[in-house]
Amino acid sequence: MKTRVTELFSINVPIIQAGMVWVSGWKLASAVSNVGALGMIGAGSMKPELLREHLQKTFSATKLPFGVNVPLLRGDIDDLIAVILQEHVEIVFTSAGHPGRHIEKFKRAGCKVVHVVANVKQALKAEETGCDAIVAEGFEAGGHNGIDEITTLALIPQVVDAVKIPVIAAGGIADGRGMLAAFALGAEAVQVGTRFAATVESSAHDVYKQKIVEADDGDTVLTYHHILPVRAVRNPFMEQVQKEETQKGMTRERMMELHAKGRERKGIFEGNWEEGEMEMGQSSGLVHDIISAAEVVKRMMNEFESTKAKIFDHTK
Questions:
Q1: Which of 67, 101, 136, 234 is most buried (CB neighbours < 10 A)?
Q2: Rounded to a whole number, what is the largest CA-CA distance in the chain?
Q3: Which residue, among 144, 136, 93, has the nearest Cα to 118 in the 3D structure?
Q4: 92, 111 Cβ separation under 8 angstroms
Q5: Domains of the chain, with CATH numbers?
Q6: CB atoms within 10 A of CB 158
Q7: Strand order from edge to edge, sheet including 230-233
Q8: What is the pLDDT of residues 262-272, one digit of tens each?
Q9: pTM for this structure?
Q10: E-assigned strands of 59-194?
C-alpha cells in the first residue's frame, strides 16, 4: 500500500509503532520493521549510552527502516541527539518541544524528521521549520497530551487542510477500523501506541500489559491538567492525583513533585499497580490479548481491507 508516508520512509505498510517510554526497545522496533511497518525506539526513557545499545541492537536485528522518538524537553537532549547522529539513524520523530532548535542538525545528517503535534498552530510551525511529515495526535492517546484536548476525529482533518506535508494520525487507533477512519480524514499513515504496548516484544512489565487487556472504555483518566495532561489507567496513584488536583491550594510544584518520582517507570516497566503511572490510551478498551507485533500489523491491515470492502459493498 503506497502513500507519501510509505514512500518517505521506504516502508510497505503505513503503520508506525509509537516510540513509547519503557515500552519501545529494540525487540519491539525491529519486530515491527521486519514486517514492513515502521518500528520506533522510544528514547524518552533512555540515557544516551542505553539508547546507543538499543540502536545498535536494532540495526543488527533488522535491515529495514526504523526510527527513534526523542522528546526535546530532555535535559540531556544534545547528548541523545549526538548518539542518534553517530549511529546514523535516518528517521527521527521529535516531540514535547519546538523542532526548530535541532532540525538543522538532523537535516545536515540526511535525517527525515517528523514532529508530533496536538493542534493546527503546532502543525504549521513544524511545517515551517522543515519537518518532512507530522504526527497529529488526539487526546485519546496515552501518556502526555496536548493542553487543548482536541480529539483525533476533529484534529486530523483540520491539520490535513492546513499543511501540505503528509499527516500521520495518532490517538485512539488500535485496529483496522480506526486506521480506515483516519485515512478517510486525510491521514496517510497511522501511529499506534497502546496496541503495540501489549505485545510479546514490548519491554513493558507483564502486569502493565495485562492491565491494558483488562481495561474497559472508561478506565483511563486524564490528569496533571495544570502542568501537561497525562492519560493513564485509573489506579490508586492516579486517583490520588485526581483528588489533589481538585483541592483548594493545589500548586504546580506539587503536581510536578507527584509526576517526577519515576512514576512512569514504576507503572510501565516495574508493574507497580499501587504507585505507578500506567500510561495507556482510550483504545485500551479495544485490546483483548497479548500477541506478537507482527500479528498486530497483520490484523490491522486485514481489518482495514475488510472494513473498506464492507463500506463499498453497502454503497453499491
A1: 136
A2: 61
A3: 136
A4: yes
A5: 4-203+285-315 (3.20.20.70), 217-283 (no CATH)
A6: 16
A7: 143-144, 230-233, 220-223
A8: 899 999 999 99
A9: 0.95
A10: 66-71, 91-95, 112-117, 133-137, 143-144, 167-170, 189-192
